[in-house]
Specification:
about 190 residues; alpha/beta; Rossmann fold; two-stranded antiparallel sheet
Amino acid sequence: MGPSHTPGFTVYKDIFEIKPAHFAVYNKSGLHIEQYWKLESKHHLEDFDETCNHLDSLLKDAISRQLVSDMPICTFLSGGLDSSIITKFTSDYMQEQDMAPLDTYSVDYVDNDKNFVKSDFQPNSDNYYIDLMNKTTYSKHHTVMLDTPELASSLKEAMLARDMPGMADVDSSLYLFCKEVKKEKTVTLMGECA
């Protein structure tokens, strides 16, 4: 089972979910499901620079709206594109507002550096990209180390927290990672499965 599934379906027999961009109304006439939004393809009229500026503006707007909090904010930083973008914009915002450096968190595994094998899919370990981001952002980085026995022993807890079967090792590591970060921070921005 992967990180995604067919919209509208669940792993349970005869139990369905409401698809994204839909809502349900139940009244004396029965159950009615309505679509409230639909992605539409339009002709792209912007040149490269305009597109970059437009995307920059959209990302800044989307991320800055999430930064309103009465609690300190942190980001999860995996080194991937989504978490790096979120971290960069959040870090810039915090620096512009004269706030304390952004706390970033990543997860790593005991002996990961010894066992990593590069491939076309992953030419470098995540740490390479995490280090690049840390050098270019206004942040203080924290790494949560996990080991195999700890991951294995938390599989059931992770599945119960998710409330449905998932991706085993990923669910387990995310569960333990969040549990550890929660000791320090309450509000987290992340790009998990974005």
